[in-house]
Amino acid sequence: MASLVDDINACSYLYPLELPSKKFVFKWVESRKPERYSSAAPLSPDARLRIVSERVDLIDNLIISVLIGPPNSQFLKSKDKSKWSAKDVADSVLSDKSALRITSTQRMAESSVLDTHSSEIDGEPYWYYEYLVRKSPTKTAQESNIYRHYITSTAERDGYLYSLNASTLSNKWDVMGPFLEKTVASFRLLPPTENYVPPYKDPWRFW
């Protein structure tokens, strides 16, 4: 595993480099270098949820991305995050995730949540959830029984949700899933340094 530290968004995670037992090497490409929330690519028309960094392995159909967005008050009604359930956090993030111009209910209907749980790390709650996206994930995989399998860890800071999202095709989950689970379990919000740019800073900036 290698470590990625993002000073701009004050977070870190580990990601797999190789599987020595299988003589397998991951072919990661950094498709989005870490950037401030205000300039990051939006995932939905309302621009609430955005990808602030991403790395992909196109050969093996793997994606690891860091997403930031405000909580959706439709699901997270309390201001006290200690009262949030992992399922409600999952619904909040997934409702803002689709890039299509559809309602949040339709966005959630595209996804099937398999498992949710929460854990406390360094006094902060982290919510974990696993889900499938029913849409055909690639042009080469048109079969309706092949989905994208996601696992996500989310934490809250400064009124925003920070999520690490890792996914692969469902038919590769048995092999790749355990390594993506380790990646998601390693996600941490770090003490901010002078390089940290909070999401609420300069919301009008797009560069």
Walkthrough of the structure:
- This protein is mainly β.
- 14% of the residues lie in helices and 38% in strands.
- It has 3 helices and 13 strands.
- It has helices spanning 86-95, 104-109, 173-185, and strands at 2-6, 11-15, 18-19, 24-25, 29-32, 41-42, 50-57, 62-69, 111-121, 124-133, 148-157, 160-169, 188-189.
- The chain starts with a strand and ends in an 18-residue tail after the last strand.
- The model has no long low-confidence stretch (mean pLDDT 85).
Question: For the terminal residues, how far apart are their CA atoms?
Answer: 32 Å
Radius of gyration: 16 Å
> What is the helix fraction of residues, given as a range?
10-25%
Mean pLDDT reading: 85
Unreliable runs, pLDDT <50, ≥5 residues?
none
Major sheet details: 8 strands, antiparallel
Beta-strand residue fraction: 35-45%
Annotation field: number of helices: 3
Structural class: mainly beta
Number of strands: 13
Sequence of secondary-structure elements: EEEEEEEEHHEEEEHE
Coarse morphology: globular
Protein name: PsbP C-terminal domain-containing protein
InterPro entries: Mog1/PsbP_a/b/a-sand (IPR016123), PsbP_C (IPR002683)
Domain PsbP C-terminal: 65-188
Keywords:
207 residues, eight-stranded antiparallel beta sheet, Mog1/PsbP_a/b/a-sand, 3 helices, mainly beta, three-stranded antiparallel beta sheet, PsbP_C
Helix-strand layout with pairing:
Elements: E1 2-6, E2 11-15, E3 18-19, E4 24-25, E5 29-32, E6 41-42, E7 50-57, E8 62-69, H1 86-95, H2 104-109, E9 111-121, E10 124-133, E11 148-157, E12 160-169, H3 173-185, E13 188-189
Antiparallel strand pairs: 1-2, 2-13, 3-4, 5-7, 6-7, 7-8, 8-12, 9-10, 10-11, 11-12
